Amino acid sequence: MPTALPNLDALIAKDEIRDLVLNYCRAMDRGDVALAESLYEKGAHDEHGLNATNTAEEFIDSIGDLLGGLATLQHNVTNHLIRITGSDTAEGEAYVVAYHRAERAGVGYVLITGGRYLDRYSKREDRWKFAHRKCVADWTHEFSAPLASDVKNPVSGNLAEGRMDEQDPSYAFFTAFPRGERA
């Protein structure tokens, strides 16, 4: 049974990397810049198409302005392939569907993007982090929509409304997912 431990280590690493990617989604969707910053290694790259230097530092510095223009943001990760390439390195491709609701010139719109995150991960100080992320858009769909979100309707009843800040109901509900900290 000499291969059991390396296989178990690979499974644990893949699970930790999936958590890294899901923490990224939570950071973006809740506007948690401190959490986002903790997910990248020092000197990492992030090619989101919005930052000229493609550095993670520049991308994180722009998150406040970027998210401030959105009323709603939700990332949904679907297929996620991960290959462990060394004891502290890995690569992955994660498919994502991102829903954005905002306004342009006083008119509400929704942008839904289907794409992929092409990631290189590194493990430093016992934590997996992004070393390099390249975002790829495979398709987009944009359409007009009301500015206001109405989650209180006959279908959903009186559901709590999600927010992109520290007032999101999850922060009061959970003790295991504090703002600014990895899950």
TrEMBL record:
Q: Which InterPro entries match?
A: NTF2-like_dom_sf (IPR032710), SnoaL-like (IPR037401)
Domain spans labelled SnoaL-like:
11-134
Q: Which residues cross the membrane?
A: none
Give a Pfam family name. SnoaL_4
Residue spans making up a coiled coil are none
Return the protein name.
SnoaL-like domain-containing protein
Which species is this UniProt entry from? Answer: Mycobacterium lehmannii
